[in-house]
Design brief:
By secondary structure, the chain is an alpha/beta fold. The protein contains ten helices and eight strands. The strands form two sheets. It has a six-stranded parallel beta sheet with strand order 5-4-1-6-7-8, with helices on both faces. It has a two-stranded antiparallel sheet with strand order 2-3. The longest helix has 18 residues, at 68-85. It starts with 8 loop residues before the first strand and ends with a helix.
């Protein structure tokens, strides 16, 4: 992985975008909340409140940032629960065809996720879609931060990819922040962690309800 053909480039988010894991995410979040005695959230309420960095999300719910000890305990519970329940999740509808079509048009694509790298790569590989990407990067180091600096490193590793012809497709406002940080564009998808209302507060970024619409917007923005 590393080089690519000519044309526009998409940086895909994984969780909540290509990978439809909402049920595992909300279950893991509520399991983590139980560590602090926080009442469980519905998926709808989660999508209204969720934000990055994740400790700020917890602050919205309990009125303060978790202590380091609380964060470590909640983080461990979250990842343990998620690892057990992600096996019941699959790709978002239409993903294999969208990836194949984008690649066949001479464009390139990659994945940048805040999911731990050593878990992400075999998961992507297991769905048989890895050949569509010139690079797959997950998170190295502690969880809970923003994607912006990770995006800087990701684009530096993509030979010949130009930020001005790059579009980030993700389900969180932080994806748009990361895109802006490197001079790329973004399209936000309503099928994951954020509600449409929260995504529409991000200025100048298209919000779509399907990944087909996201790819069409990406092609327009990168033209």
């Amino acid at each position: 992985m590393g080089k690519h053909g000519s044309g526009a480039h998409i940086v895909w988010d994984w969780n909540g975008t290509l990978f439809h894991d909402n049920e595992a995410i909300i279950g893991a979040t509520n399991a983590a909340f139980a560590e602090l005695g926080i009442e469980p959230l519905t998926l709808e309420r989660y999508r209204e409140l969720y934000c990055v960095p994740v400790p700020k999300f917890y602050e919205r719910l309990i009125g303060r940032l978790p202590t380091d000890e609380e964060w470590d305990a909640m983080d461990a519970v979250f990842h343990r629960y998620y690892a057990e329940h992600r096996v019941a999740c699959g790709l978002t509808d239409g993903v294999p065809t969208l990836l194949a079509d984008w690649r066949s048009e001479g464009h390139s694509q990659s994945i940048l996720s805040m999911y731990v790298h050593d878990e992400l790569v075999p998961l992507v590989r297991g769905f048989g879609i890895e050949p569509h990407f010139i690079r797959v990067d997950g998170r190295h180091g502690p969880s809970g931060g923003s994607k912006a600096e990770h995006m800087v490193r990701h684009l530096r590793r993509l030979v010949g990819v130009e930020p001005e012809r790059t579009v980030v497709i993700g389900d969180a406002a932080d994806d748009a922040v990361a895109a802006r940080h490197v001079g790329a564009r973004a399209v936000l998808y309503t099928g994951g962690s954020h509600s449409r209302a929260s995504l529409e507060t991000v200025p100048g970024v298209p919000v779509v309800d399907t990944l087909e619409e996201a790819v069409a917007e990406a092609e327009r923005l990168a033209a």
